[in-house]
Design a protein that fits this description.
Blueprint: E1 2-9, E2 12-19, E3 27-31, H1 42-47, E4 55-59, H2 75-89, E5 94-99, H3 101-112, E6 117-123, H4 133-140, H5 142-157, H6 170-184, H7 197-200, H8 206-216, E7 229-234, H9 245-249, E8 255-260, H10 266-269, H11 271-285
Helix pairs in contact: 2-3, 4-5, 5-8
Length: 287
Amino acid sequence: MEKKFYKAETNLSICYSIEKSKASCGVIVFLHGLASNMSRWSEFVEFTSLTRKWDIITIDLRGHGLSSYRGDISMEKWCSDIIEILSQEGYKDAIIVGHCLGANIAANFGILYPQKCRGLIFLEPIFSESIGGFLGILKNNKFILTIILKVIKTANSIGLFRRKIPLLSLREMDLKGREIIKKHGDPEALKKIYGNPIHDLCYIPLYAYFQSLRELLKPFPEKIDSIPKLFIFSSGRLFGESLDVKKILSKYKNSDVTIIDSFHWIPTEKPAELRKTIEEWIKKHNS
């Protein structure tokens, strides 16, 4: 895939990669999750049959990967970045696929730019009403995040921040994750590295991380009925233990749902099944 940049602000360029098909019928944009980057989708893109007929764009979201940033971040700014990249590449609309935080961004994109959406695919979206544990505490005590963000912003303003942040390869991480599963015989062992804030914070600026958490804890948008949608959940639903899928999906017309038998990390645990699910749904709705 060709790596390119969109100049979003004076001190910020958004990095994205694009692979064009010889017989393109449109573009699919893939969005990664919290503290991740476009490499989340590199294995998917290499092996998917979608590249025969579709152009593929993967993005390092503002604040993540090679789009590292210590300025302000919001759902609106992430969605605007996607619009600008589509415009820069000459596309009028797209299918948007998002994982975790990326799924929530995709839903907001559908609200803000419905005319730009041919379809929305949500892989393990986060519904704030189902969140528990540490994230639940932050959701119910938003002042904690506000204080944390003010402290970090003040520290950054006087030059207290990391000068170099390593780039995480999700593809390599997935390979290691599969070895961990093979060794322990249980995907729950992946919790040592996946979804571990201490691990995540090594690869993202603190200000970007906690702003992303704030945005992730906002309600998942509901009024996107006109756009075809696919929800993909793991059977384990690690971060949504109380999630009632039927109740949630009753709010969303024009939607399909697939539950993949996995502990939580579908791209790591069941990459082939994930590819097949997305490929078949896109073929069905764009034949």
